[in-house]
UniProtKB/TrEMBL annotation:
Name of protein: Thiamine-phosphate synthase
Pfam families: ThiD2 (PF17792), TMP-TENI (PF02581)
Residue ranges constituting the ThiD2 domain according to the UniProt record: 18-140
Amino-acid positions noted as binding Mg(2+) in the UniProt annotation, renumbered to this chain: 219, 238
Keyword Metal-binding tagged: yes
Binding site for 4-amino-2-methyl-5-(diphosphooxymethyl)pyrimidine: 186-190, 218, 257, 286
GO biological process: thiamine biosynthetic process; thiamine diphosphate biosynthetic process
InterPro entries listed in its UniProt record: Aldolase_TIM, ThiamineP_synth_sf, ThiamineP_synth_TenI, ThiD2, TMP_synthase, TMP_synthase_cyanobac_bac
SUPFAM superfamilies to which the protein is assigned, alphabetical: Thiamin phosphate synthase
Length: 356
């Protein structure tokens, strides 16, 4: 219900309604552009749904205002801002910039809606605050998707290795994997003590820094930080993406395992840099009771554009099924690390994934 204001206040109420009317249009327009960017620019069904939901919920919140009052307050002729635009508003050099500036525009307008509605219809204000926070989450997810789609564009073969028999054996394995064209190497060893794990991680850092191979530590942001790894991989029961990022900072990669489409959607909103998707097939490396399998691969491929690596029992024999299900990125252990000729096994999988 709008407030019945005393005469002196009714003047400010009119100004507030005018600001609300203008901000409502700007917010809706900005969100529409963002939605079109994630739909046509990123081809991301999940982000498109999120953007659309924010826009629809904005429409619903705006309906709580009397449209008659808003129309009466509208006075474009007297709006001193109507013909004022800065050079920055005009300059657009790429699609991403269009999305960013429209997100900012929507966020600023949501803030205006939040503040001015406090004056005339305070009970509506919290809806705009909530929408503003949702737009920040959306921004984070769009940024991560866009940046990682290019940062990890060529990353198709991801290999998990343990610490090996000893350091020489480990170094030999890593040399072959790098030579075989592995894009990401993950150090995953739950048996060795922390000292040895860190020593392997530091060794791996040295070896990968002379190549284009990324180096990720499994489970342990602390070890990743100490070894200056490129990032960490966490599971659903481990530290969250947010907590891992709090340890490692914004520039490092944080990947998360997902076993359902809901978890994959959540990972996007949590700001993960990539996701593991599986288990796809029975694995010799780890045992599972349940297999979301190729159905999950299909679901993720259909709606998520964050780099996604199918994992679990993948080999040169079945990788085509993963590709046909829609993902061209896989994470493997046994098929490569336990092969007789590691380099050859990696190079072979790599060439299938890159369709060479
Ligand atoms: C790339 C990638 N995807 C999934 C996993 C599995 O992680 P998690 O579920 O935490 O299981 P553990 O590896 O910790 O046993 C992964 N490590 N890497
Ligand atoms: C750690 C992990 N999480 C899901 S499957 C898997 C092991 C992958 O190894 P492999 O490729 O040998 O099945
Ligand atoms: Mg884990």
């Amino acid at each position: 219900m709008s407030r019945d204001l005393p005469p002196s206040d009714s003047h400010s109420a009119l100004h507030a309604w005018r600001a609300i009317d203008a901000a409502a249009n700007r917010a809706a327009e900005g969100l529409r552009v963002v939605e079109d960017f994630v739909r046509f620019g990123l081809d991301d069904r999940h982000l498109t749904t999120l953007a659309k939901n924010v826009r629809h919920d904005l429409t619903a919140a705006l309906k709580l205002f009397s449209s008659e009052t808003l129309h009466r307050a509208r006075d474009t002729q007297a709006d001193v801002g109507v013909n004022v635009s800065t050079e920055a508003e005009q300059a657009r050099t790429n699609l991403a910039q269009i999305a960013t500036s429209n997100l900012k525009r929507a966020q600023q307008s949501l803030r205006t809606l939040e503040e001015f509605s406090k004056l005339v219809q305070p009970e509506v204000s919290p809806y705009f605050e909530q929408l503003r926070y949702r737009s920040y989450t959306l921004e984070k997810a769009i940024t991560a998707t866009r940046e990682n789609a290019s940062r990890l564009a060529d990353a198709r073969l991801y290999v998990l290795i343990d610490g090996g028999r000893d350091e020489d054996h480990f170094a030999e394995l890593v040399t072959q994997l790098i030579a075989g064209g592995v894009a990401i190497l993950q150090l995953r060893d739950k048996r060795i003590d922390d000292k040895t794990l860190l020593a392997r991680a530091q060794h791996l850092r040295k070896m990968t820094s002379e190549s284009s191979t990324f180096f990720i530590v499994n489970d342990r942001p602390d070890v990743a930080l100490l070894a200056d790894a490129d990032g960490v991989h966490v599971g659903q029961e481990e530290l969250s993406v947010k907590e891992a990022r709090a340890v490692l900072g914004v520039d490092k990669l944080v990947g998360v395992s997902t076993h359902s489409i809901e978890q994959a959607r959540r990972a996007v909103l949590d700001g993960a840099d990539y996701i593991g998707v599986g288990p796809t097939f029975p694995s010799q490396t780890k045992s599972f009771d349940q297999f979301p399998g190729l159905d999950l691969v299909r679901q993720v491929a259909a709606e998520i554009r964050l780099p996604a690596f199918a994992i679990g029992g993948i080999s040169a024999e079945n990788v085509t099924q993963v590709i046909e299900a829609g993902l061209c990125r896989v994470a493997v252990s046994g098929a490569v690390a336990a092969a007789e000729d590691t380099q050859k096994a990696a190079a072979n999988l790599r060439s299938i994934l890159h369709n060479d």
